[in-house]
Design goal:
The complex is a heterodimer of chains A (about 250) and B (about 270). With about 250 residues, chain A is of the alpha/beta class. Chain A folds into 2 domains: about 1-85 and about 160-255, Rossmann fold; about 85-160, no CATH class. Chain A has helices at about 25-30, 55-60, 100-110, 115-130, 145-155, 175-190, 205-210, 240-254; strands at about 10-20, 30-40, 45, 70-75, 75-80, 85-90, 165, 195-200, 210-215, 220-230. In chain A, a hairpin with a 4-residue loop joins strand 9 (about 210-215) and strand 10 (about 220-230). Chain B is mainly α and about 270 residues long. Chain B has one domain: MetI-like fold (Orthogonal Bundle), CATH 1.10.3720. The two termini of chain B are about 15 Å apart. The chains are: A alpha/beta (about 250), B mainly alpha (about 270). The interface between A and B is medium-sized, with 30 and 26 residues.
Amino acid sequence: MTNSNNNKHKISIINVTKQFDAETIERGLALKDISFNVESNEFVTIVGRSGCGKTTLLNIIAGFLKPTSGTILKDGDPIRAPGPDRGMVFQHASLFPWLTAIKNIEFGPKNQGIPKEKRIKLANELIKLVRLEGSENKYPRELSGGMRQRVAIARALALDPDILLMDEPFGALDELTRSEMQSELLRIWEARKKTVIFVTHSIFEAIYLSDRIIVLSPHPGQVSKNIKIDIPRPRNRSSQPFLELYEDIHEAIF
Amino acid sequence: MKLSSKRSSRFLGTRVLNVLIRLMTVIILLFFWEFSVRLGWISSFEFPPPSRLMETLIMLITDGFPRGITAWIHVLATVMRILQGYALATVMAIPMGILIGRSKILVRASNPVITFARSVATISLLPLAVAWFGVGEFARVLLITYGCFWIILTNTIDGVQQVDPDYHRAAQMMGTSPSQLFFRVILPASLPRIFSGMKVALGMAFLVIVAVEMIGTIQGLGALIQQSRTFFRSDIAMVGMLFMGIFGYFLSIVLDWLERILLPWSKGLEEVER
């Protein structure tokens, strides 16, 4: 990995504050003085209660929102706008309903002017990676929630970003599909080696997936804990260290 | 595969049954009508029986009413007026709606005008249109355009405005240029709403056409119905209505078919949805 200048982190979040317009300054303050780093190929999860500003933070990293103050550096350079170097998976998949699964995956490469043959090959590889063979020509409305998120992951990977941003992608899935998708995500992450920033309100999900967990406390959103997880994968959701960690984080959130 | 073909054959069976039930209802009603007249329960002058309507229908197709102006000429005149007015409205309203819908300022600025223009019943503009443009074809087509235009315009504006902001974001993160965003995201995302506006507008065109054909012309289904009143021929009025109904039904089938072809992702797949 080639990291520029003196900054050897993949992403540095430095004193980020976000103030929205609201009647009172206090109410509009979504994020206050957030600082942490994300290393290359690291799986970092931001966990916190609803309304703690975790999605706002992710949107700032994506470039959809601008921070009121503070900066975010990627490979040492400030983030100014959304770009294909950061792929995003949305909470409700947000696939284009007028395109089939494979056309959704091809959307980015097509807009970037990648020739047809090459992008079809690329899309087929991704279909295989997310295990959707046989469903590539279905429209999103014909797919189940879990399958839609598989397409969304493939679509986010299509432009080969170095960072994958995931905004509660499994939040709307039933429990069984959800735990299946968690293992699938780890498998895909192992295969493609990306830096992942994952947002969730599920502590279990955070511990199962992450190398590191950033706990945000609400009103205003602040980093209340930054925990490295050393439990080897695959992690047993009912093991002693897993449950101890759960207690720790649970406490930090409240 | 097996399951779906089994399901579709059962589906087909239900459809045939549905058609039969509907057909039977109509036939029973027609018989009841015919016999009510024959038994003298209702007057054959005010409610000409189906058998009489059949004769009128043949007369309209062969001789025409007034003589020489056959049903075909009437239908064609009406079709042409509706198609011209409707096409003109569509061609103007969709681009304008997209333009307005993309700008919050334009939406706010245009809102009072659109709300006002929509509330004016098109038919009430008839005297004005005649005063300005005379009783020629132009005034008639223009009134149909007026009626359709505002409906398609408002639906297009809403369609563009209601595009899921996450589609924008998804497109942005995939490095989409502004023109790609427009043609590959905004336009397809708002098409279903635009289409439903076009369907409502077609209904409006039918409302307007009858009224505008009642003055200054003897061609067109509206004119036919108007003439029948002058000559106390309720049978002709009824056959005129029948033509109108068949024509409207046919046009809405064409629109449904177009929608299925243009928007295969939006309609007709309800069964598969999980």
